Structures are given as C-alpha cells and as structure tokens.
Amino acid sequence: MSASIIPCELRSVVKSFGRTAVLRGVSLALDAGQITGLSGINGAGKTTLFRILAGLEDADSGELVFGASGEVGLREGVREQVAFVTHAPQLYPLLSARENLQLFADLRSARGCETMPAREALMTVGLEAVSDQAVRTFSRGMAQRVVLARAIAARPSLLLLDEPFTALDTEGQELVLRVLLEAKERGASVLLSSHDLARLREVSDRVVRLHAGRLESPREPTGHEGAEGVKARLPESSATTRG
Predict the structure, then answer these.
(1) Distance between alpha carbon 151 and the CA centroid of its chain, in Å?
(2) pLDDT at site 226
C-alpha cells in the first residue's frame, strides 16, 4: 500500500472563475485523526475548495502537499487515497447498489487498489436488504447512503464530505456520524461542510469559516460534546433502509 497522504496541507491556494475570485490564498492543514468542519454561506467557495482537494479542479496558484514526504499535487498513489462525497449522488441509476459499488471496486482494482467488498460496505450503511435493487428506485437519502458506502469501501486517508447530512433523516445522520468517527479512529483526516453550524461544532475537532475567499482563524468548538461525546450517545445500530 502507498504511504499515507496525511497530513495534507493547502498552501496559499488561489482560484478564480473569470474575474470572480473564489479562493484568495487559502492555507489549511489537515492532520491525521482529525475532523475539520468547514462553514460558510452559499457561494463562499466551499465546493471549489473540495474539488481542488479531490483533484477535480486545478488551482490557479498555490500548492497541495501530501504526506510526511511532502508530495506535491494529486499524483498516482495520492488520488486513490482520497474519497469525495458530494451532495449529488453521481451513481448509475440503472445499476443496482451492489453493481455500482462493484464497478467502483473493479476500477480501483485495475489500478492495484484494494477495496472493501460491495456487500460488506452496503451492510455498513444498512442497505444489504436492497443491494440488488436499481438505484433509480431509491429515495435521495438511500442513494446518499450508497455514496457513503462507496467512500467507506475505499478506506480513504482523506475523506471529504460536502453537505453530507442533506436529504438524510435522523437515522441517516447518525450513520454519517458513525462514518466520521470510524475514519477518525483509523487515523484518516476528515473535512466536512454544513450550513448547520451547531452540528459542525458538535462533531468536529475544530471549525473554520470560509468568508470572502479566505479562511478565518480556526475556532475551537465551545460548549459542545465533541466526537467522543457523540460516539457515546449513538445507539449500537441505527442503519435502516429508510431515506
């Protein structure tokens, strides 16, 4: 397996679209076993920041540095350790949940990457009973669970979640919390965004705010229970097939 890409650091990242500056020299360090919450209004540049970290968008300037060796950029061996969960499912609707994950595993296998078996990943998110149903029959919340299963299957070192609580009911949101905590416990770094600042403060080790293209100084969540408190109050199992 490739060396860990964590810690990950953005250094003075700049991104503009035409004359509109979206990111203005953003610097952010993401450490192992840490959950970082990202807040900001619509249009603040959160999704652009995620896309740059995931290698889906190029920065105009600045650097992405990965691992203790200081690897610059999303080269082979780095990209495979990044998982990005967006608020759009991006699944093949005519394929079943299992087939979607199996296709993902096959593509990773072609690059020499190991992946959790599809049925095991779907069991983790409570969809084993409907694993052979076409995704087009799923509610949006169920489709979002398939996306989470796909991310879990990759066992990423860097897990990026853009509005992961969207379309999920209470049990689905608890599932997301379990995914966050599992990633944290195995030493991955997690970056997630949400418009719910109270929820971000509840689950994150720290929260930063993207405003006018710049990151404000990290704010340590105050008066919150933290990741361990969240873990303690979660029921033993909450995964169901509901949205």
Answers:
(1) 8
(2) 55
